TrEMBL record:
Name used for this protein in its record: Amidohydrolase 3 domain-containing protein
Pfam families: Amidohydro_3 (PF07969)
Gene3D superfamilies registered for this protein in UniProt: 3.10.310.70, Metal-dependent hydrolases, Urease, subunit C, domain 1
Signal peptide positions (record): none
Provenance organism: Mucilaginibacter oryzae
Entry's Gene Ontology molecular function annotations: hydrolase activity, acting on carbon-nitrogen (but not peptide) bonds
Length: 543
């Protein structure tokens, strides 16, 4: 009996353990859990849409009865990727418009518009994504060709960063734009007393405000088509930076119906009605939607010389760019956002814009804090200002593909010395010890593996430059993976529910056809997502 009792107890325990039921066992995998020790595991169990346990296949198989077994066949598995800065809805709308990304000349753009206009015979013609830096003739175009092709139909074609656009006369007429007209924080280009159609920064808005509202069906199609493409690159959460408040209900309903499975972190745009809405309603939090943040614009972009610099542009001696609003505006809204405990996220590219915002943030945050106020892009940062990020727990939110997209011409804008203070991701990471990564799509490609590649290799897709651009600011692979998982989750106050494969978290994960932590750097960008899961449910399968 003395011998039998422990054996019986063991047997009873074993039987009891096998009674645990689970929805799925993922095994034969290299699971990068991205937990605090950056542990890898061979298997994990999913139940009720959440991670139940992580460990070895043997131990988990003994303990759990899984309805479904997913044999990863040795593949690497990562937490679902999070894009900490993107324009998800806008990207989806763009999929229904003329795609001008990668166009090599103005005449190629005009051709794309013609093709689109033949297939879509009425309404505004809206295009996005051109970048004159990609052209042999790098001057802004004028509207003459568009006027002759479309004398009656309004056309508006935005630059890749959205900070400049070209409109035809029909569009300018609807918006009532006149030659010589001026606007604060923008430019309406007039040459020899005539409008060229080129609009910079705030001037773009005069025309975009006249574009008829999209129909509800168009909005749904935009969100669902954006989701489809994002799942195919392993994204399971996207930060949508700067939406109008009515989008919150639309997203919520589409998620409620089960059509929109993508998790979204929504920043509302800097507009009176959005503040009024969220201050009154309070933060919104469901498993798929988190609204507790505002997106503010301090300045424009470097490419169109709209970024606000401390000293003039190196290729435009008397021009330093400008702030998009009077600093008083930021000083007024910051304490209101702080009083509600909400997050302020400010687009700041130039070192002057970054400094202005760091100071306003500092005055409100006072010292170390947990409000996680963000400076989106933090692209050019004066070395003197770097320490402010750490001192006031201000989060730099960066997009590594910007470095490798801009590197061909950024030196012209900034000069050699100042270029060293730009795209300084490693230095920015050092300030708080964590750094969220994003893409800013549709400005950049949606693929988070391009982010990973640009962050660690600092090269373009052709492998240029061979030594990497300002390689001292590259991130390690571990840092880059954290940046697009757990640190991005933290920037969204969601590190307790996602960003790693750990018990209790959402079963959001991706399987890749290569292990990006181990393959040669040049193989990272061609690595493909084979499966994407949200809540333990497959939302993408490459097959
Ligand atoms: Zn953006």
């Amino acid at each position: 009996m003395k011998k039998l009792l422990p054996a019986l107890l063991l047997l009873a325990a074993a039987c009891k353990q096998k009674e645990y039921n689970a929805d799925m066992l993922v095994k034969n995998a290299v699971v990068y859990t991205v937990d605090s020790n950056f542990t890898t595991a061979g298997a994990f169990v999913v139940s009720g849409g959440k991670i139940l346990a992580v460990g070895s296949a043997d131990s988990l198989e003994q303990k759990y009865n899984a309805r479904e077994v997913l044999d990863a066949q040795g593949a690497a598995v990562y937490p679902g990727f999070i894009d900490a800065h993107a324009h998800f809805y806008e990207y989806g709308m763009g999929l229904q418009q003329v795609n001008l990304v990668g166009t090599q000349s103005w005449s190629q753009i005009v051709d794309s518009v013609k093709v689109y206009a033949e297939r879509n015979t009425d309404g505004w013609i809206i295009g996005n994504g051109w970048d004159q830096n990609d052209w042999t003739d790098k001057h802004f175009p004028d509207k003459a060709k568009l006027d002759s092709l479309f004398p009656m139909r309004p056309v508006l074609l935005s630059r890749v960063d959205g900070h400049a656009a070209i409109a035809n006369q029909a569009a300018l007429n609807i918006a009532g734009v006149k030659p010589g007209q001026t606007i604060v924080g923008g430019e309406i280009e007039t040459r020899n007393g005539k409008l060229t159609g080129v609009l910079v920064d705030n001037a773009v808005g005069i025309v975009t405000r006249k574009i008829p509202e999209p129909t509800p069906a168009m909005v749904d199609t935009a969100l669902l088509s954006a989701q489809k493409n994002c799942f195919a690159v392993g994204l399971t959460t996207v930060d949508d930076c700067g939406l109008p408040y009515p989008m919150v209900n639309i997203i919520n309903e589409l998620q409620h119906k089960g059509d929109l499975k993508m998790r979204l972190y929504v920043m509302l745009a800097d507009r009176a009605e959005n503040y009024e809405y969220l201050f009154k309603k309070g933060a919104i939090k469901t498993p798929g939607l988190n609204v507790r943040s505002f997106k503010v614009y301090a300045d424009g972009a470097l490419g169109s010389r709209g970024a606000c610099l401390l000293k003039p542009y190196s290729d435009s001696a008397k021009w330093s760019g400008f702030l998009l609003s009077n600093p008083k505006h930021f000083e007024e809204i910051a304490p209101k956002i702080a009083a509600h405990g909400f997050q302020m996220c400010t687009h700041a590219i130039g070192d002057s814009a970054v400094r202005t915002m760091l100071k306003i943030y500092a005055a409100n945050l006072k010292g170390k804090n947990n409000l996680r106020w963000r400076i989106e892009h933090s692209q050019v940062v004066s070395p003197e200002d770097l320490a402010l990020f750490g001192r006031y727990s201000i989060v730099p939110s960066v997009q590594p593909t910007h470095a490798t997209s801009d590197m061909y011409w950024a030196g012209k804008r900034l000069g050699k010395e100042r270029l060293k203070t730009a795209y300084a991701y490693k230095q920015l990471l050092d300030q708080n010890g964590w750094l969220p990564l994003g893409t800013d799509f549709p400005v950049e490609n949606i693929n988070p593996l391009y982010t990973f590649y640009a962050a660690v290799e600092r090269k373009d897709l052709k492998g240029f430059p061979a030594v990497g651009f300002q390689k001292e600011n590259a991130l390690s692979r571990t840092e880059a993976l954290k940046g697009m998982t757990i640190w991005a989750a933290k920037a969204n106050f969601e590190e307790k529910e996602k960003g790693s494969i750990e018990p209790g978290k959402y079963a959001d994960f991706v399987i890749l056809d290569r292990d990006i932590m181990k393959v040669k750097g040049s193989q990272i960008p061609t690595t493909k997502v084979t499966k994407t899961y949200i809540n333990g449910v497959k939302v993408y399968d490459k097959k």
